[in-house]
Amino acid sequence: MQLTAWDTLPYYAAVMIAILLRTVTRGTARPVLRRVARCAEYYTFFTFIVLLGAIASYPVAAATHGFVDEGLARFDTLLHFDWMTWYRVVVMHPALQRMGRMAYESIYWPPVILLGYYAWTERDRDAWRFMSRFWVAAILTLIVFRFMPAIGPLAYLWHGPVPYMPESALWQPELIPPLRLHAMHLIDLGTLRGLVSAPSFHTAAAVLYIVAAWPIRRLRVPLILLNGAMLLATPVEGTHYLTDMLIGALVAGCAVGLHDWMAHARPVPRFALAMGLTA
Length: 279
Description:
2 strands
């Protein structure tokens, strides 16, 4: 797979700005400049993690076989969760559509807030631990996705014209089959699509954000409310089964536990810390 050149330029520019800021402010006695440099470093590395995970989902999707929607829908039934009813309620209330879309798209605001807070308070260790856990969760998500591809409840359960197209649309049934046939050879960074249904990475991210915010008294309540809204919007806007979300929460818990276990088992340099090997 190739990356289209023009869409990579803003990312290259962001990396160069971060490197420049870090170089210029290295050893400075001015705390504001140190904080700005830290913030640029955090945001750049977090963006790298997000982009790498999103890009990696394409070749992983190409290696999958079949779909597991029947099993996911059956498990939702056992949990007494009716996705169709949830969707119809949103269809009948445009206000819920607008609020749900905004809540679902807010996934990047918590890390902006958290990493900005860590930079301003110079809590370098906490920042890298947060990003490391996120990195481990992304890896675990891709591993599970390899064995649990799904087209999502909108494509699987709803038949006929779609009265309201959620934010995630019908990307899984539209993109995964061509990827399996190797009919797609370009990944446009400007139009990356979410291909992972199970587990729900929005849910995994929300759990990680709440875990990170919990020790910070001034951020705890706002981020719990923000991520709670995102979780409520995820079934429809993310076209996820409730089972997807439960698996996503489990992935987040495993990521925290696995990362922290590795961190205490073997101390390593900061670069390895950033790659998820220590805390």
